[in-house]
Amino acid sequence: MPNSNTSPDAKRFEQTSQEGRSRILWGDSPEKVSAWLREQGFTSAQIEDVLKTAQLERAQAVRAAGIDDMIMGFLFILIFGGMFLVMFFTRLRFALVDFTGLSGAAYGLYRLLRGVYHLMEGGSYQGSVTELSRED
């Protein structure tokens, strides 16, 4: 809960810092955000601090999205691949079930590999971090 004794300048500083961090998460370049913060009256040390924090948050968000993708991919492979294998090794073979099992497992492999890529990529990801969860 914000302190009611906080000065208007401190509130403005915090809001502007948060907007700078948000701009980094949305995919703006550090140079562009640095120029914007300079226009808002931030010192070089304050700009460096905001950018460092934002880039760490961004890398963490990209890696978290990668882990989510890996988990979902593994679950798709487990469920649909398992469904395909059960049908393959039994006499209950239906073309639709085979197709569903294989396509679900292939999608799971795609999500798993995309998750590994984002996990390794971290802070070097270009674009909005909020778009990572909507890439499907």
Kindly describe this structure.
The protein has 136 residues and is mainly alpha-helical. 74% of the residues lie in helices and 0% in strands. The protein is built from four helices and no strands. It has helices at 8-25, 30-39, 44-88, 95-121. The longest helix has 45 residues, at 44-88. Residues 1-5 have low confidence and may be disordered.
Number of strands: 0
Could you say which structural class the secondary elements and strand pairing correspond to?
A: mainly alpha
**Average pLDDT, to the nearest integer?**
84
Describe the main β-sheet briefly.
none
How are the SSEs placed, and which strands pair?
Blueprint: H1 8-25, H2 30-39, H3 44-88, H4 95-121
Descriptive terms for the model:
136 residues, 4 helices, disordered N terminus
How would you summarize this macromolecular structure in one to three sentences?
With 136 residues, this protein is mainly alpha-helical. It has helices spanning 8-25, 30-39, 44-88, 95-121. Helix 1 (8-25) packs antiparallel against helix 2 (30-39) and helix 2 (30-39) runs antiparallel to helix 3 (44-88).
